[in-house]
Specification:
- The complex is a heterodimer of chains A (326) and B (547).
- Chain A is built from eleven helices and 15 strands.
- By secondary structure, chain A is an alpha/beta fold.
- Chain A folds into two domains: 187 residues, 3-Layer(aba) Sandwich (Rossmann fold), CATH 3.40.50.300; 120 residues, 2-Layer Sandwich (Hypothetical Protein Yjia, Chain: A,domain 2).
- Chain B is of the alpha/beta class and 547 residues long.
- Among the domains of chain B are: 128 residues, Diaminopimelate Epimerase, Chain A, domain 1; 229 residues, Metal-dependent hydrolases (TIM Barrel).
- In chain B, strand 7 and strand 8 form a beta hairpin.
- Chain B is globular, with a radius of gyration of 24 Å.
- At the A-B interface, helix 2 and helix 3 of A face helix 6 and helix 10 of B.
């Protein structure tokens, strides 16, 4: 039995912001990740009956190894029940109701050592944010969602007017200045990569950087972030001398808005660590690394990484040439 | 020919406006033939005259419009609340009026468990009355270091656990999660709040309150009802899974079952379509003692837990506004669809913003699909102002007010949650009456004890635990309070043609009292002894109180 902690992701956002369709896309593109998705309404999920291997009341097992769970029995009891099957699950994804506070849900992963805190992704309906944010019944909830998100996806940009979309982007950016905002519609593979990304397999991150050529080589399928490299801007850097830990932590916080993904292996003066970042979510976890290797990192961004790279150069990093650009 | 029984009584308060008082009531086939004088009974001869209650008062069997059948089953676990309570068998659970007393009660409960590892659960803990003193894990460790212990607070938001449970859960000084409370040295105290901490506790022990209702709980619920004069009661937040539905049928068909049960489907436990189909299918199970058709909607949380949704100016102590249970738009859609399906909605709204949202939703539903006499009912509705009561009257919406709150938490509402102005108008039965809203009052058992005479006392006196009177303008008369716990409640349940008054054709359901609520002084209504009930013409004596 696998005792590794189960990754835990929260998808927040108001009614109509596209959470269900995101969950649908994720289930379809899950690959080898066995997701357990907890949703408010089974019926809204677009699941082909032929793919349902087993259904028992509020739990549905799919042919691809994923599990869907109804939250109708309440989050606490559903999670207690679900964790009895933790050996069948790699990654739990909660579709938070539009009026819940995502950070209170992420607390489940912060308190349970069998869970690993992952991304809190909040979807923002660009066409209706103005209505929602001025509705006194919803205002505090929406503000709390802004505070707790690691990253935002601006949805409905196709039906929102350009002005409205810009207004929505500004509104979010004012309230969460250090969180990335993804616009447009990332492809399914990128979406899966964004969500599973910060849920790291430390060894693959490490080996991956020993062999940068693998990005395009025959082991490429092992890199879940591959899709991101093609969809977004990416940049790889390396440092041969130990890195100042405080300086790096400061960098991670300062550039969180630009870092959809950040990952790597780092040698600080006092320890070595695996770095995993997704917007405001930063993990720097102790790791045992080969002392002879250089520190290696990769950054992926929806906008521009030149300032981030400059900041890293100031910490002793240099560019690596052969990482695929966009 | 079936038998006719005539019961005599010192007074029969009928709640039938055309014959308010009688000395005799005739019963046949479980139903009332008529009430009047002994001479009036001659028309029903031959009959058997029962003088067993000649010195007692008969009133219509009380109707509890908001309680939970869990009241029957929760006594499997020790009670550690502040005030004395009696379980369905009549056993007194002594109120624990200090932390030491709570620990002593837990130690006694622990001694009744066989092995050393079975979790110990207790409920009803209410440290509000202990000043600054809080319970900590070390105190619970004196009860047991080998079994996990969970003590549920009466407000439903907090738990206290022992070190054994924290060890199992891996909760240490390094746990930095909202809801894990710590002492000055950074050590977790064992006091846990909010979902995540609750999850962590139940992950170790299982949640004993999870799942639907079972027959033994429903049987004990009926015993509890007999003890306080109730003959019709709701189970107002019910899982309609197969086991629970079967349990309702089994209990209601058990010979001698002394209660008419009214489960209300928990509408958020399945999709709207499935819920409506379930509620309609359940109608086929209906019998004399089982009346499906109610559906429950949860709008917001609780006021003392700061999760109720309040209008401006919000919480008196400045806490942020509470939580919607579902997106407001989804709640509106739910109300509309159940309304269109002809079902009967009972809608939990504690804060005034929640009441407003639901009045908007009900108004929209009425415009989209006019339905005369729907009797949708706002439940608790503790903070509604006069304008909201006027809207209820116009929309044909009923209200069931949580009068017991005035006594149990009124002091806290005045000082902390609502402030004096709004606390004075909380559970405003006087306003409901003035504005012509059909209303009832309730206990929400097991949150507070099921005892309609106590609930009536609360509405009549509006006295808090410390003796303060909150909003004397909202007091109602004893007669109106008696109406609220009988015919008023029956009306909100669409049962006023069957129960709630003593008149021909209705079920012969009576509460048998030692004194008249209309004769004793208003402050003594809660002290009236309940002999028991007569349900469908059959007497059921209340359990003798022991301990």
């Amino acid at each position: 039995m696998n005792d590794a902690p189960v990754d835990f992701t929260v998808i927040g956002g108001f009614l109509g912001s596209g959470k269900t369709s995101l969950v649908n896309r994720l289930l379809a593109a899950s690959g080898s990740t066995r997701f357990a998705v907890l949703v408010n309404d089974f019926g809204a999920l677009n699941i082909d009956e032929a793919l349902i291997r087993h259904q028992d009341g509020r739990i549905m097992q799919l042919a691809n190894g994923c599990i869907c769970c109804s939250l109708a029995g309440g989050l606490v009891d559903t999670m207690v029940e679900l964790m009895r099957y933790r050996h069948l699950i790699d990654h739990i994804l909660i579709e938070a109701s539009g009026v819940s506070y995502p950070s209170r849900i992420m607390d489940f992963a912060r308190i349970d050592p069998d869970l690993r805190p992952g991304l809190t992704l909040v979807l923002v309906d660009a066409a209706h944010l103005q209505d929602h944010s001025t509705d006194t019944r919803l205002a505090e909830t929406i503000t709390a969602q802004m505070e707790s998100a690691d990253m935002f996806v601006l949805t409905k940009t196709d039906i929102a007017s350009a002005d409205m979309a810009a207004w929505s982007r500004d509104w979010v950016a004012t309230r969460a200045p250090d969180a990335p905002i993804i616009e447009g519609r990332p492809d399914d593979a990128s979406l899966v990569a964004l969500i599973t990304g910060p849920a790291p397999d430390a060894t693959s991150a490490a080996t991956h950087h020993h062999h940068p050529a693998d990005h395009t080589g025959h082991h490429a399928h092992a890199d879940p972030d591959r899709a991101l490299h093609t969809h977004f801007v990416s940049r790889a850097m390396t440092a041969s001398r130990p890195v100042d830990e405080d300086g790096f932590a400061d960098f991670a916080n300062r550039f969180s808005k630009h870092l959809l993904r950040g990952k790597g292996t780092l040698h600080f003066h006092r320890r070595s660590a695996i770095w995993q970042q997704a917007g405001r979510l930063v993990h720097l976890e102790d790791a045992t690394l080969d002392a002879d290797t250089a520190s290696q990192i990769v950054m992926i961004s929806a906008d521009d990484l030149s300032e981030a790279a400059a900041a890293l150069r100031a910490l002793g990093f240099q560019d690596v040439a052969n990482v695929p650009a966009r | 020919m079936t038998e006719t029984n005539v019961f005599s009584a010192r007074d029969i308060i009928t709640m039938n406006a055309s014959r308010p008082h009688a000395t005799h009531v005739a019963v046949r086939d479980g139903r009332i033939l008529g009430a009047g004088s002994l001479e009036d009974m001659e028309q029903w001869a031959p009959y058997t005259l029962t003088d067993d209650f000649a010195d007692k008062i008969l009133v219509p069997g009380f109707v509890e419009g908001h309680a939970h059948a869990m009241e029957g089953g929760i006594w499997d676990f020790p009670y550690v609340g502040y005030e004395d309570r009696w379980d369905p068998s009549g056993r007194r659970w002594e109120g624990a009026q200090s932390l030491e007393a709570v620990i002593a009660a837990l130690t006694a409960a622990e001694a009744r468990l066989d092995d050393a590892e079975t979790p110990l659960f207790a409920w009803g803990f209410d440290p509000i009355y202990f000043g600054e003193a809080r319970m900590n894990a070390a105190q619970l460790d004196s009860v047991s270091t080998t079994r996990p212990i969970i003590v549920l607070h009466s407000n439903g938001h907090l738990l206290n656990v022992n070190s054994r449970l924290m060890d199992m859960a891996g909760i240490t000084a390094d746990t930095n999660v909202y809801g894990v409370l710590k002492d000055d040295n950074g050590k977790p105290t064992g006091e846990l709040m909010e979902m995540a901490a609750k999850y962590m506790a139940y992950r170790q022990t299982g949640n004993p309150f999870f799942g639907g209702i079972k027959t033994p709980s429903l049987l004990r619920y009926a015993e509890s009802a007999v003890n306080c004069g109730v003959t019709t009661a709701t189970d107002l937040f019910a899982s309609f899974n197969e086991e629970s539905l079967a349990a309702y049928v089994e209990a209601s068909q058990t010979p001698g079952y002394a209660l008419r049960l009214m489960p209300a489907l928990n509408t958020i436990e399945q999709s709207i379509d499935e819920g409506i189909a379930l509620a309609k299918r359940a109608l086929q199970d209906n019998n004399d003692r089982l009346h499906h058709r109610l559906c429950k909607v949860m709008t917001d949380g609780s006021i003392q837990g700061f999760t109720a949704r309040l209008k401006w100016p919000g919480y008196h102590n400045g806490k942020p506004n509470g939580l919607w249970n579902l997106d407001p738009d989804t709640l509106g859609e739910l109300v509309l669809e159940y309304h269109k399906a002809g079902l009967h909605l009972h809608i939990h709204t504690n804060g005034d913003e929640a009441s407003e949202l639901m009045l908007d939703a009900l108004e929209a539903a009425q415009l989209a699909c006019p339905r005369p006499d729907h009797r949708h009912t706002l439940q608790h509705c503790q903070m509604a102002d006069a304008s909201q009561f006027r809207r209820m009257a116009k929309l044909g919406v009923c209200v069931n007010l949580f009068a017991n709150h005035i006594y149990y938490w009124g002091d806290q509402h005045a000082a902390i949650t609502m402030g004096p102005d709004r606390a004075n108008r909380m559970d405003a039965a006087g306003t409901a009456q003035r504005e012509g809203v059909h209303f009832s009052i309730h206990s929400d058992a097991p949150v507070t004890p099921m005892a309609p005479l106590f609930t009536a006392w609360c509405a009549v006196n509006r006295q808090t635990r410390t003796g303060t009177v909150l909003g004397p303008e909202e007091q109602i008369s004893a007669e109106d309070a008696l109406y609220a716990i009988t015919l008023g409640a029956a009306y909100t349940l669409h049962m006023d043609h069957l129960v709630g008054s003593i008149e021909p054709g209705k079920y012969a359901d009576f509460a048998v009292l030692e004194d008249s609520p209309l004769q004793v002084s208003p402050d003594a209504i809660r002290d009236i002894s309940v002999w028991g009930t007569i349900s469908g013409g059959a007497p059921h004596k209340a359990a003798t109180r022991t301990g």
